Amino acid sequence: MSVSYRARLTLAAAAAVAVAVAGASAVTYALVRSELRGQVDDTLRSRAGDLPPRLDIIGDPHGEQFLDLRPERFGGVAVFTQLVRADGQAIVPPRVTGRLPVSPRARAAARGEVDKPFFEDADVQGTHVRVLTLPLGRGYAVQVARSLEEVDRVLRRVSRWLVALALAGIGLAAGLGLLVARAVLAPVQRLTRTAEEVSETRDLSRRIDASGTDELSRLATTFNTMLGALEDSARAQRQLVSDASHELRTPLTSLRTNIEVL
Length: 262
What we know:
Number of helices: 6
Strand order of the largest sheet: 2-1-5-4-3
Order of helices and strands: HHHEEHEEEHH
Mean pLDDT: 77
Oligomer: single chain
Low-confidence stretches: 70-76
Structural class: alpha+beta
């Protein structure tokens, strides 16, 4: 099934807008995600800066120094902290049952193979968390974590709004593209109708209104010039036939008269 030029033009406009809207939505989502997660990372860095001195944490992981690392709650905005030993065992404050998963990179940090803090995402009992791991040396590393559930909820709302705006923008672009295509193709439609009428009626005196200097106006002017040339050619052809008929009629009349006389 063939598609009209108007439909193709409308689809092209909608597709161009769709690509632009999708790109803008992706950039917006990435910026919002980076900003929200950056705030979480800043919170974790701030909490890590409030930790007791490293030697105190390592020297007495179950004593008073480590009690300060106990969170108020886990899964909200509270910060959870634990120590990681070189063998991968996690040490948490007293009366805390939850533990962060110890990744291979966290064990490497505890063994001293990683000397810079780093961030990771993890899942703890169905809760999406952001984890900051800081190497302490002497076979230990400390992990500070905060839930990302609130950030994920905001990102889901943002993504839904962006999708809705993108669909609305594409629909609006399709409607405007249809109007623009109709306005742009109006001269072409007039040219097409005139050509069809000339083909059906053989009336070469028809002309198209051509005003302006754009491509369509030039095409209409060229079409009118072609119709004028065809009209002159048809007129000359009719004159030639008429003259030939007259010139042939005179000797035929003379011959007929001579035949009757004979």
